[in-house]
Design a protein that fits this description.
The protein is of the alpha+beta class. It has helices spanning about 1-15, 60-75, 95-100, 185-210, 230-235, 250-255, 280, and strands spanning about 25-35, 85-90, 110-115, 125-130, 135-145, 160-165, 170-175, 215-220, 235, 250, 265, 270, 275-280, 290-295, 315, 320, 330-335. It has a single domain (about 1-335), classed as 4-Layer Sandwich (Deoxyribonuclease I, Chain A). It contains seven helices and 17 strands. The chain has a seven-stranded mixed β-sheet with strand order 5-6-7-8-13-10-9. Helix 2 packs across helix 3 (about 95-100).
């Protein structure tokens, strides 16, 4: 089944234009980097597995290999469009790993800046935004703390970054990593609903101030586009024609319904990595306008054989070091400049 889905995805992606001149488009992306930890012990978080003497024997060599892999992927996302102007990332331990990432040979040409805040997540993973400093100017950023009914529950902040693309257009990017399904759907769903309500609060505030505001809500949402957290609480619509002023459109919904996935769990394809946009970006009359949503699915990112054939090649699987990339595929949007 997964092989058939993959073939469908590849055939659709091959329909993309072969080249787009830099400046005519802007790419906004998201990528869950799956446990990008350094090798040093941080007593404030649970990073013991990712130490040289830890369960994963996380040596400097393995860390550098992970950086090389992650930077390779990011450098190739929408390469024909100039690469991501901005890319949200999740599962990063701290600012240091991001500084090491953007300093790699693969990413040096992009001259990337970093927006990062330490969050209270017990596992020590945060979200962040990387951006091309030559194309994206940050004018504001702020971390929003997620509070749930479980006062002992600590998770990732949601980061709002407002910036200007190519000194032409202002966009507002909300980077997320919603709570996982640990403990089961019934127990965990209220936490993702709380995350959805926080994202909606932030986006509603922006759209209330300006109904034409260009807002992107991105991240590993740990729910598919048809989940009640996204449909009923974030209130993101899956069909563009149904989106009204101050409402949200989820372009990942169609990809999900077409069987195109970004993540596989127990042989089930999912699109939990999403970028959701505002009416103002969907129906823009000037500046940048939404064009299409895609999932970056290069062959080298997939397992070539065995029981996991066709799904993302991870760094670890079953406790074994594979030296791969991430259990997620990157997702991205193409924005067209209106002339």
């Amino acid at each position: 089944m997964l092989k058939k889905i993959t073939l469908l995805a590849l055939s659709l992606l091959m329909m993309a234009p072969l080249f787009a001149q830099k400046g005519q488009n802007a790419v906004i992306a998201f990528y869950n980097l799956e446990n990008l930890f350094d090798t040093e012990n941080d007593p404030l978080i649970n990073d013991e597995q990712f130490l040289p003497e830890g369960d994963y024997q996380w040596t400097e060599e393995r860390y550098q290999h992970k950086l090389e892999n992650m930077s390779k992927v990011i450098s190739l996302i929408a390469k024909d469009y100039g690469g991501p102007v901005a890319i949200g990332v999740s599962e990063v331990e701290n600012r240091r790993v991001l500084e090491d990432l953007v300093a790699t040979d693969n990413l040096k040409p992009f001259n990337m800046g970093i927006v990062h805040y330490d969050s209270p997540d017990r596992r020590g993973v945060d979200v962040a935004l990387l951006y091309q400093k030559d194309r994206f100017r940050v004018i504001h950023s702020y971390p929003y703390r997620l509070i749930t009914e479980d006062t002992n529950f600590l998770t990732r902040d949601q980061i709002l970054v407002t910036g200007i693309i190519d000194e032409i257009d202002t966009v507002n990017i909300i980077v997320n990593h919603w709570p996982s399904k640990l403990g089961g759907e019934k127990r965990s769903m209220p936490k993702r609903i709380a995350a959805a309500e926080l994202s909606k609060h932030i986006s509603d505030s922006l759209m209330k101030a300006n109904s034409a505001a260009k807002v992107l809500i991105m991240g590993d949402l740990n729910d598919n586009p048809d989940a009640k957290s996204i449909v009923n609480y974030l209130q993101a619509k899956g069909k563009a024609k149904e989106v009204g002023v101050n409402q949200l459109f989820n372009p990942m919904y169609k990809l999900y319904m077409d069987g195109i996935w970004s993540y596989v769990y127990r042989d089930e394809p999912n699109v939990i990595d999403q970028i959701i946009i505002s009416y103002g970006l969907l129906n823009a009359t000037k500046g940048f306008k939404y064009s299409s949503a895609r999932i970056f699915r290069a062959n080298f990112l997939l397992t070539k054989s065995g029981s996991f054939e066709g799904i993302p090649l991870r760094t670890f699987a079953g406790g074994n070091y594979l030296g791969g990339y991430s259990d997620h595929l990157p997702v991205y949007l193409i924005l067209d400049l209106i002339k």
